[in-house]
UniProtKB/TrEMBL annotation:
<keyword id="KW-0812">Transmembrane</keyword>
<keyword id="KW-1133">Transmembrane helix</keyword>
<feature type="transmembrane region" description="Helical">
    <location>
        <begin position="347"/>
        <end position="365"/>
    </location>
</feature>
<feature type="transmembrane region" description="Helical">
    <location>
        <begin position="128"/>
        <end position="148"/>
    </location>
</feature>
<feature type="transmembrane region" description="Helical">
    <location>
        <begin position="319"/>
        <end position="340"/>
    </location>
</feature>
<feature type="transmembrane region" description="Helical">
    <location>
        <begin position="155"/>
        <end position="173"/>
    </location>
</feature>
<feature type="transmembrane region" description="Helical">
    <location>
        <begin position="9"/>
        <end position="27"/>
    </location>
</feature>
<protein>
    <recommendedName>
        <fullName>Oligosaccharide repeat unit polymerase</fullName>
    </recommendedName>
</protein>
<feature type="transmembrane region" description="Helical">
    <location>
        <begin position="33"/>
        <end position="54"/>
    </location>
</feature>
<feature type="transmembrane region" description="Helical">
    <location>
        <begin position="66"/>
        <end position="87"/>
    </location>
</feature>
<keyword id="KW-0472">Membrane</keyword>
<feature type="transmembrane region" description="Helical">
    <location>
        <begin position="179"/>
        <end position="194"/>
    </location>
</feature>
<feature type="transmembrane region" description="Helical">
    <location>
        <begin position="206"/>
        <end position="224"/>
    </location>
</feature>
<feature type="transmembrane region" description="Helical">
    <location>
        <begin position="371"/>
        <end position="391"/>
    </location>
</feature>
Length: 398
């Protein structure tokens, strides 16, 4: 199989389609099929655009000597940054955080309470350093992963990759959230895929990747159980409820727990399409800015009695309100095109890895929502990418 088919986005969309068909929820067959059709449309646009953009299987790399001592220093600073930012956002001391995790106490509840009581949700100059600290965590993790895509594997490099990702784990444990684990997964998928493009004889460690995904799913499931005081019972988290007759839930309960993130978006867009088709506005939504000037907001259907729960709006819905349905699909195609074009540069550099990772996150976000701009740190990474591209354009950096 061509290495192209191991592109994380390719695997992600295939996985979403399979998940939408199997997820144990009690929705009408029609809704499920429309949701799958929506995913297949996005997949087709990605596949076509990225296939057109593909130039070569291999990446050209000019290796450079790595100062491991300096990298160790940068990674060490990550731990200072994570304990500082973790305490700022949660008010929890490091030892208390570890104690809560071991005791099964929900750091998420404590984080939410502190976040509201300390009024951290409002922006202020006092938030600059914590935001930059989280940005630093992600930047160094990405840089070390970039090094690992082309450098000859040594034990100390593998250890360094792990050590650079641990602060993201710690930050997730501080807040009791799971998004950091998802970002780690995307980073690893990008690392493995790009390494296979640098070294064409590199065999993708499928078993290890599956083991990683299984481990992260276990952590996610545990985090959810802790939030419910280890008394989690599947209920109607959104408009759909779990299908009690599904054997999959009995053996794989995490499949339903993931539905709020990975099935709500496709299900919502199926209902969205039916709603606007019945109202006759679906053709008007082909026009740019129609939804914006009509006052449509993300999760628009929630205003009509749809039980949305604490979920994200699919990024594709937001794009249709600003650009119209047709241009929204073109936007998906352009981002897909440039995701692969980052690997077609004359020389593979950090800006290539950063761009590939960020556009991968955005392509992940279109069907389900808000993966890329979920945090201020990610927005700074986007600005950094644009800055590096401008500098590269004017040949001020290589």
């Amino acid at each position: 199989m061509s290495k192209y088919f191991y592109n994380p986005v390719f695997l992600y969309y295939i996985g979403l389609v399979v998940y939408a068909l199997l997820v144990p929820v009690d929705v009408d067959f029609e809704l499920r099929i429309i949701a799958v059709f929506y995913l297949l449309l996005l997949f087709f646009v990605f596949f076509l655009s990225s296939f057109i953009s593909t130039r070569s299987e291999s990446l050209k790399v000019e290796g450079f000597d790595i100062n491991f001592r300096f990298l160790i220093f940068l990674v060490s600073l990550q731990y200072l940054a994570v304990f500082y930012s973790g305490y700022f956002y949660t008010g929890i001391e490091p030892l208390d955080m570890i104690g809560n995790v071991l005791a099964g106490v929900s750091n998420y509840s404590l984080y939410q309470e502190y976040f509201k009581s300390a009024e951290i949700s409002t922006f202020g100059i006092y938030k600059v350093f914590p935001i930059l600290s989280v940005f630093y965590l992600k930047l160094i993790s990405l840089y070390v992963c970039y090094i690992a895509t082309f450098h000859v594997y040594k034990f100390k490099l593998i250890v360094l990759v792990v050590l650079s990702l641990v602060p993201l784990v710690i930050f997730g444990l501080y807040r009791g959230t799971s998004f950091e684990f998802f970002e780690i997964l995307v980073m690893i998928l990008c690392l493995v895929y790009l390494r296979s493009r640098v070294y064409l004889n590199f065999k993708i460690p499928i078993f290890k990747v599956v083991l990683l995904i299984s481990t992260l799913l276990f952590v996610y499931s545990y985090q959810v159980s802790v939030r419910y005081l280890h008394d989690y019972r599947p209920d109607c988290l959104n408009e759909f409820c779990y299908d009690s007759d599904s054997f999959l839930f009995d053996y794989f309960p995490v499949m339903y727990k993931l539905s709020a993130y990975f099935y709500f978006g496709p299900d919502y867009m199926a209902r969205w399409l039916i709603h606007f088709s019945e109202s006759g506005e679906v053709f008007s939504l082909m026009l740019p800015f129609y939804g914006f000037f009509s006052g449509f907001e993300p999760k628009h259907l929630c205003q009509y009695g749809l039980n949305c729960g604490p979920t994200w709006a699919p990024d594709f819905e937001i794009a249709t309100y600003h650009f119209g349905i047709i241009l929204a699909f073109i936007l998906v195609g352009l981002i897909s095109y440039f995701q692969v074009r980052f690997l077609s540069a004359k020389r593979y550099a950090f800006v290539s890895f950063l761009g590939f990772y960020l556009l991968t996150l955005q392509l992940f976000a279109f069907p389900v929502g808000n993966f890329l701009v979920v945090s201020s740190a990610n927005k700074i990474l986007l600005f950094l990418l644009l800055f590096l591209l401008v500098c590269k354009k004017f040949k001020r950096v290589v």
